[in-house]
């Protein structure tokens, strides 16, 4: 497989692992980007963007990055907090009064960011296309009783996080989430990263190649098994009551790409993912663009919640809106995917394996995006092999099967 782009000699092993992903690990089309001290040291892409037509993955190719979008959404909230316009310890109702219905009046903004709000799903049946109607979803969430007492437990708000945080951003700024992100982040930094993709960019999109669960050797995570066997469970509600968004192929429809969905709807590539995190690896600013004050970074990187996740049914660790290193390699094979980065790092992966993160201690940002999904929710061997190669190039070591350290 022909690999394009550049890679400095120090990070040559990243290129080697990227090539191995195609040769040995089933990669179809992908890109990887790494910055060190703000400078690109890896910028690679290769493979096929569209197997049906043979269209190759190019420098301009973008792809659905799924839950990597959550980090972009969380960043919007932290930008406002850094400016003193949003108090993360205030009740949500200070900014969104209607949210207080049915026992949610004491829910704090930080509970929403840390997946503690108790609203990973709604019980009201959603009509087809519901996720493309912002007002419908946010009003439904505002009226929904929490599925557990907010602040007492955490559970991954896989599909609702973007509407919850995004509505807070909208109430504070008067701008939709996608427009605020473009105005404050992707525009000033010149990033290919959209929540609400312009129609003229559709030809550059590599559509998702989903997992075929009937293939031999495919092991579905506990979340999916529970959802399919117990539709009335919290995982079942999350994955089945979403207005058809999770139906095969729907997420790559034009309507889905055009919608501003801050949990799962982002369209980007490795360069865009690493670009979001580059200022965060450098004290909050890059090339004259300050996203947050350096004093805000501990709120973005310190662990806020950890332990068994009420939704994905395996241990997870979150800062306020960002994933932290999680070693699940000791679990049964279907639930082993996690996120093996340094304890100083913070970021977010996307369903099937995409990933972006910042490591302020190493002054590194990382992005990986691909079109063929793996079966799990975490970072699979393709992305993890690239992360591991980056840390080895930096001279870091890893605990037995676990996280990286200097």
TrEMBL record:
Residue ranges annotated for the Beta-lactamase-related domain, each copy included: 18-378
Hydrolase listed as a keyword: yes
Domain of life the protein comes from: Bacteria
Gene3D superfamilies referenced in this protein's UniProt entry, alphabetically: DD-peptidase/beta-lactamase superfamily
Example of a GO MF term: hydrolase activity
Pfam families per UniProt: Beta-lactamase (PF00144)
Presence of the UniProt keyword DNA damage in the record: no
Signal peptide span: none
UniProt-listed Enzyme Commission number(s): 3.1.1.103
Keywords associated with the record: Hydrolase
Name of the featured protein: Serine hydrolase domain-containing protein
Organism: Lentzea sokolovensis
């Amino acid at each position: 497989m022909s690999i394009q782009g550049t890679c400095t000699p120090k990070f040559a092993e990243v290129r080697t692992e990227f090539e191995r992903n195609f040769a040995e690990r089933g990669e179809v089309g992908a890109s990887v980007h790494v910055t060190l001290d703000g400078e690109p040291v890896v910028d690679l892409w290769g493979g096929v963007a569209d197997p049906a037509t043979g269209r190759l993955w190019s420098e301009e190719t973008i792809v659905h990055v799924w839950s990597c979008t959550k980090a972009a959404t969380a960043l919007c909230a932290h930008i406002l907090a850094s400016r003193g316009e949003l108090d993360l310890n205030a009740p949500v109702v200070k900014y969104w009064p209607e949210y207080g219905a049915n026992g949610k009046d004491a829910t704090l903004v930080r509970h929403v960011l840390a997946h503690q709000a108790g609203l990973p799903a709604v019980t009201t049946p959603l009509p087809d296309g519901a996720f493309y109607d912002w007002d419908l979803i946010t009003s439904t969430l505002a009226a929904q009783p929490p599925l557990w007492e907010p602040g007492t437990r955490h559970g991954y708000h896989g599909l609702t996080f973007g509407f919850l945080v995004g509505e807070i951003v909208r109430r504070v700024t008067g701008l939709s989430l996608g427009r605020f992100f473009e105005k404050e982040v992707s525009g000033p930094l010149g990033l290919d990263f959209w929540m609400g993709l312009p129609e003229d960019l559709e030809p550059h999109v590599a559509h998702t190649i989903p997992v075929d669960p009937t293939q031999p050797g495919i092991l579905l995570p506990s979340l999916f098994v529970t959802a399919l066997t117990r539709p009335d469970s919290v995982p079942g509600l999350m994955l089945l009551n979403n207005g058809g968004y999770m139906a095969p192929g729907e997420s790559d429809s034009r309507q889905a790409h055009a919608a501003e969905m801050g949990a799962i709807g982002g369209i980007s590539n490795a360069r865009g993912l690493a670009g979001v995190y580059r200022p965060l690896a450098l004290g909050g600013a890059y090339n004259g663009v300050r996203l947050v004050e350096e004093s805000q970074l501990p709120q973005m990187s310190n662990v806020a919640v950890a332990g068994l996740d009420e939704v994905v049914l395996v241990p997870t660790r979150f800062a306020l809106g960002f994933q932290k290193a999680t070693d699940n390699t000791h679990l049964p094979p279907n639930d082993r995917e996690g996120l093996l980065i340094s304890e100083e790092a913070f970021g977010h992966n996307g369903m099937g394996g995409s990933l972006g993160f910042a490591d302020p201690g190493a002054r590194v940002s990382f992005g990986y995006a691909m079109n063929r999904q793996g079966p799990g929710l975490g970072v699979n061997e393709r992305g993890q092999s690239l992360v591991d190669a980056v840390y080895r190039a930096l001279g870091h070591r890893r605990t037995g099967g676990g996280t990286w350290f200097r």
